[in-house]
């Protein structure tokens, strides 16, 4: 029964992939989808995030950067070096049943695609940013979720991943982000409690604008 459910799930996954990549392919959207998954596109966004943190809480910028990088390292290494070779699910472009129907807008890439590293990395960043900004400034950056989701959609659109690849990557990213945020909060509270100088240098003063 489990095998039958898995087969149906994979069949549905391929059907959704076909609907997005083939049926939903619109030529004038190609440049946008390629841009969404290009890491250079988001450099201004990263600068914006760092500026917001620095403006509202200058002393915490370095730990914030370290938490973001640590989250990224966890998601990238776990997805690319552990799960992908273990699960060994072929990318759509390596799936012989789909070869003739895929619109590939970029190079195929590695042989395996589950989970999507792009999805894991960006949902990891979205999670750590959302949780830490809420913790430090009592602000809620809801925009991080559609941002990360749009990158997942672009991965399917350009032919790199199945929907389940991106869903698994997103879940991995969320778990990694929550884990690192707990570590960060523990460090922050412990640091302030045990060092009166740190308490002066790291006051809880939510001053950053939305």
Summed up, the domain count is 1
Can you tell me the residue ranges where pLDDT is under 50 for at least 5 consecutive residues? 197-210
The shape is globular
Largest sheet: none
Number of helices: 8
What is the H-and-E element order? HHHHHHHH
Structural class: mainly alpha
DSSP helix fraction: 55-70%
Number of strands: 0
**C-alpha Rg (nearest Å):** 20 Å
In whole angstroms, the N-to-C terminal distance is 50 Å
Look at the structure and give the mean pLDDT: 90
Proportion in β-strands: under 5%
Description:
This protein has 210 residues and is mainly alpha-helical. It has one domain (2-201). It contains 8 helices and no strands. Helix 4 packs antiparallel against helix 5 (117-137). The protein is globular.
Brief write-up:
The chain is mainly α. The chain has helices spanning 2-23, 30-36, 43-56, 61-87, 117-137, 144-157, 163-194, 196-201. The chain is globular.
